Every structure is written in structure tokens, then in C-alpha cells.
Amino acid sequence: MSIFQKVNNFLNNPQSFTYSILGIYLLIITAIIFKSGLVLGLDIIFVLFFLAALFIGKWKFFLKDWFPFLLMFFAYEAMRGIADNLAGSVRIWEMIRADYFLFGQLPTVFLQNNLWKGGIISWYDIAGFFFYLSHFWFVFLVGFIIWLKKRAYFKAFAWSFLILCGLGFITYLLFPAMPPWMASSYGYIDEVERLFMEIAKGLNLGSFITTTYLLISPNEVAAMPSLHMAWSLFASLFLIHVFGKKLLPIFIIPLGLGFSLVYFAEHYVIDLIVGILYAFLAFLIGKSFFLKKRFLLKL
User: Fold this and answer.
1) Burial class (CB in 10 A: 0-12, 13-18, 19+), 103
2) pLDDT value at position 269?
3) N or C: which end of the chain has fewer CB within 10 A?
4) Which among 171, 212, 170 is positioned nearest to 45, based on CA atoms?
């Protein structure tokens, strides 16, 4: 078999292609983090996507397909940043009571009491750190892979994802919720630390915000639902639906991310559960409507 046939077989194998792209990206982002202390933000990621599309001669299709999606996504991000100013009183106790009901204690407090070594960074801290970072790139990389390999499915993916974001935004308006690290700082729960920041400092890393996000104020009371979990699970479900069950191991990303979100005091478990429900809802909407042949034929 010639080298060209091998390359062609590789490109036509969704499992090998997807895992290779994920692996290469992880190596690149890891090198950048440790070299410069700068995590790639969405603005940089999309520039890289455009350059990749330019390299393979599909930049016009990229602009046609991605520009409306990116415009609406950044509009959502800007609105999410002011949602805490529009919402009512912040909810505190509902999530605490729910986690106590489910576990008899707060999982975040339990995990930090048993795993966190007070500034001594362990291997699972580093693993959790990189799982946490997957929130910023995984769903968009999945979208790019779908666009490259199954372009007819990309708009279905994009619209379903935007619906997921919209559901989250409405919930933030109606139910602004305080995350564990903030509840601890006000004395509502036992002391926990926001470990993402502590681990970043321990690894001597720099800023985690790129140019675009300097213009958007983060909403710190947007804990319910966990869109970190929802985005990751939605992307995994969509990827497997498009390319097949051979990609089932991709679920390690939302599983690892979910653990780090609770351990790092970013979310209660109940936030994750609601995020999972939202992810399935958005996926089912996409599967039931946007992935219908009649809709795909219009793309």
C-alpha cells in the first residue's frame, strides 16, 4: 500500500482522524501553556480554524458556515456577561440542600478535604486542570471536525449548540446561582478553595483570558446549570451520533471535566445533573429536527 493510500485511508477513518486531531491539539495547547502561560481563547482558536480552512482551500465555505454561528455565539457570550445585572436575587441554598440530599454531605468539601494538599500539586490536580480547560476548546473542535468531515451536519450541530446556550442563558436570568467557591467565601459552606486558580499559580502559568474576553465581563453567578458539563456532553453525543459508536471513549472528556468542576469548587453536583439534562435536550432537538433529511437537503 502506497503512502498516499495510507493517508487517504486515515482521512476516511473517522475514529483515527478524530482521535489524532484531539491528540495533536492537546499537545499544541499543552506546549503553549507551559511555554508562555497563555491558554488559547476562543478568538485565537477560531483564527487557527480559519488558517486551517485557508490551507486546505475551504476558507470561503468556512466564512459562509462559521461566521453567522460565531456572530450569534459571541452575542450570547456578551449577554451572558450582563445576565447577573438583569437577574434577581442570587440563589444559594437550593443547590447546597440538593447535594446534601443526594450525598449526605457536599462532594466539593469531601474531595478537597481528602485530595487537596494545600499548594502541593498532585498528578490528579494537573489532570483535572487540563480536563477543565477542555471546556474552552472541545465543543468547538468537535464542530470543526464535523465541518471538515461531514459538512452537511455542521449547521445542525451549530443550531443545536446555540439552543443549548440559549437555554442556559434563560436559566441564568431566572435562577442566578452562587457557585461553591463563592458560597464558601461568604461562609455559607465549609471552607473550600477555587482550585483552578491555585493550580494555575502552582504551575506558574499566566493569563487565561485572551483579547476578546477582555471585553466581556464574566457572570460569576451562572452556576446552574453547568454549561461546562452541558457543552462537553453535547459535543460528545453529537460526535458519536455523526461518526458512530467507535468514538464512545470520547466520553472520558465530560467525565473528567465533571470531576474537576466539583473538585475545583466551580459547581455543585446538582449543577452538573441539570447541565446533563440540558445537553440531552439540545441533542434530542438537533436529532429530531435539524438532522432530518428534509432539513439537511436545504443546507
Assistant:
1) exposed
2) 95
3) N
4) 212
* Backbone CA torsion sign across 226, 74, 83, 264: positive
d(CA 52, CA 37): 24
d(CA 258, CA 267): 9
Report the C-alpha gap between 123 and 268 in whole angstroms: 23
Nearest to 66 by CA among 76, 74, 55: 74
Question: What's the pLDDT tens digit per position in 241-276?
Answer: 988 888 888 999 999 999 999 999 999 999 999 999
List the domain range (segments joined by +) for residue 137: 3-297
- Sequence-ordered list of residues with C-beta below 8 angstroms from that of 293, at least 6 positions apart, any chain: none
d(CA 248, CA 264): 26
Summarize pLDDT for 170-208 with one digit per residue, the tens: 888 888 888 999 999 888 989 998 888 788 777 776 544
Q: Indicate the pTM of the whole model.
A: 0.79
Q: How many domains does the chain have?
A: 1
Choose among 92, 64, 108: nearest CA to 269: 108
Residue whose C-alpha cell is 432537538 = 285
